[in-house]
TrEMBL record:
Entry superkingdom: Eukaryota
InterPro entries: DEAD-box_helicase_OB_fold, HA2_WH, Helicase-assoc_dom, Helicase_ATP-bd, Helicase_C-like, P-loop_NTPase
Keyword list, A-Z: ATP-binding, Hydrolase, mRNA processing, mRNA splicing, Nucleotide-binding
Positions of the Helicase ATP-binding domain: 1-56
GO molecular function, one term: ATP binding
Species of origin: Xylaria bambusicola
Protein EC: 3.6.4.13
SUPFAM superfamilies from the UniProt entry: P-loop containing nucleoside triphosphate hydrolases
Name of the protein described by the UniProt record: RNA helicase
Entry-linked CDD domains: SF2_C_RHA (cd18791)
Length: 527
């Protein structure tokens, strides 16, 4: 059974392609595809079509499958639009929360925003302003909901609010279909969502804020009518709604395909170009992914998975660039350090926590762990201090503005990755000392061997350019390299906020390393 198929994630699309392939060998296999806003005809047609050269099955003959509609019981939802566009949708969200609170009867509020930074800012603003509400009125309890929170923090949104309190849940699109929260009567839809977008020309994948689709807007509004009649406040005009796309392009048409091609090859599907995708990805994305995997050493010149490197990269539960970094670490004599860095970067920036109004204190706490070479070695210092001086205790984290749950998760992830390497026969030296003289250099070289495709050069104005020179990048304010000089860097992650493209987890490197470790991915041009 495949659920939430309408979300069209790459994993779902590839799974459906594999199931179609399996069904040819096992026609008795029964497959159920379910979803809230499913384009049912499209899925049935996909399974009805046979491979090239064979006739397609008539989708109306019920031999392949049938479409069954189950109507859920929903209550009517009034949809309200703005008369004119909002200048700042985060500020408009906050003012709409207080309008509902002051003029609408009881019921919890669900707000859709695009990401962690917006949600945290809105939660703080609502908490501050609700302190000024008259004592006799109902209290407001703002709660965040996004993927970076611990399971315990996410579960708060499901708890019943204290007496005489209205919950305000501020969420990413995680609450669109994946979870149902009781008590929601009002939905505020900012009209935006953060989507992953990969540019094959630059090789950079970024998270970009884009307008929602009509299908997403309908899903969001539907959250208000689960338990009784509700209202949906859309923070855009009705005319803007009419111009929204019906659905977003499937993830497979706008993502870096390297991890998925690696998985298909490991499953024995060598001819990935002929694989039956529900929606075929653009040729440029396939070419770029194959080029990267070849440069990483995962594929040979015949586009076959290399042994043992390619097979091991496919088996490691991390994306290909980090897999190559981990598997190169023994030749750079820094396995222990790279294991730690792999675990810490997997936390997605959730290492530091800002306690009440303590931004300056958090910054000074971060400086205690700072490594001159950049963010990766700083994360290594944090982890080593946590497991040695900090004895893996929450008190140490609280005193140093660190996220205890995130660091505990890093210890677990590191253990899993270590077990993978040991299974491959790679022994890990666990002398957890501060990097020996020259060890930091080896770590940076090893990171370059995996992340050479994510390299950038500093410009006179302090910004960076990727190697092709077409994209202007800025060090994220959370990076140690923000306002610091480094001629050449590699980076881990790209994100777009407003009209700027930021890079996170940045480390200084030498230009010559890019040529040494990229297997021909870069060449120098004669001047």
């Amino acid at each position: 059974m495949v659920d939430e198929a309408h979300e069209r994630s790459i994993s779902t699309d590839i799974l459906l392609g594999l199931l179609k392939k399996i069904r040819r060998r096992r026609p008795e296999l029964r497959i159920i595809i379910s979803s809230a806003t499913l384009q049912a005809e499209e899925f049935l047609k996909f399974f009805s079509e046979t491979s090239e050269g064979q006739e397609s099955v008539d989708i109306n003959d019920n031999l392949t499958g049938a479409i069954i509609s189950l109507k859920g019981r929903t209550y009517p939802v009034d949809v309200l639009y703005l008369e004119s566009p909002a200048e700042d949708y985060v500020e408009k969200v906050v003012s709409t929360v207080f309008e509902i609170h002051n003029s609408e009867p009881g019921g919890d509020i669900l707000v859709f925003l695009t990401g962690r930074e917006e949600i945290d800012a809105a939660v703080q603003t609502i908490a501050e302003r609700s302190a000024d509400l008259p004592l006799e009125t109902q209290a407001l309890l703002p709660l965040p909901l996004y993927a970076g929170l611990t399971t315990e923090q996410q579960m708060y949104v499901f708890d019943a609010p204290p007496e005489n309190t209205r919950k305000v849940i501020l969420s990413t699109n995680i609450a669109e279909a994946s979870v149902t929260i009781d008590g929601i009567v009002y939905v505020i839809d900012s009209g935006f969502v953060k989507l992953r977008a990969f540019d094959p020309r630059t090789g950079i994948e970024s998270l970009t804020i884009t307008p929602v689709s009509k299908a997403s807007a309908a899903q969001r509004a539907g959250r208000a009518g689960r338990t009784k009649p509700g209202k949906c406040f859309r923070l855009f005009t009705e005319d803007a709604y009419k111009h929204l796309p019906d659905t977003h392009p499937p993830e497979i048409q706008r993502s870096n395909l390297a991890p998925f091609i690696l998985q298909l090859k490991a499953l024995g599907i060598d001819n990935v170009v002929r694989f039956e995708f529900l929606t075929p990805p653009p040729a440029e994305l396939m070419i770029k992914a194959m080029e990267l995997l070849y440069a990483l050493g995962a594929l040979d010149e015949y586009s076959r998975l290399t042994r043992p490197l390619g097979m091991r990269m496919a088996e490691l539960a991390v994306e290909p660039m980090m897999a190559k970094t981990l598997l190169s670490a023994s030749s750079f004599n820094c396995i222990s350090e790279i294991l730690t860095i792999a675990a810490m970067t997997s936390l997605g920036g959730a290492v530091w926590v800002q306690q009440d109004g303590g931004k300056k204190q958090m910054e000074s706490a971060r400086r205690k762990f700072a490594a001159e070479e950049g963010d990766h070695l700083t994360l290594l210092n944090v982890y080593q201090a946590f497991v040695t001086k900090g004895k893996k205790e929450s008190r140490f984290c609280h005193d140093n503005y660190l996220n205890f749950k995130a660091l505990t998760r890093a210890v677990s992830i590191r253990g899993q990755l270590k077990r993978y390497l040991e299974r491959f026969g790679i022994s890990v030296d666990e002398s957890l000392k501060v990097p020996r003289e020259g060890r930091a250099d080896q770590v940076r070289r090893c990171l370059t061997a995996g992340y050479f495709a994510h390299a950038a050069k500093m410009q006179p104005d302090g910004s960076y350019r990727n190697i092709e020179g077409g994209t202007v990048l800025y060090a994220h304010p959370s990076s140690l390299m923000f306002n610091r000089k480094a001629e050449w860097v590699i980076f881990h992650e790209v994100m777009e906020t407003g009209n700027k493209t930021f890079i996170r987890d940045i480390t200084k490197i030498e230009k010559s390393w890019l040529l040494d470790y990229s297997a021909g991915f870069y060449q120098t041009k004669p001047r």
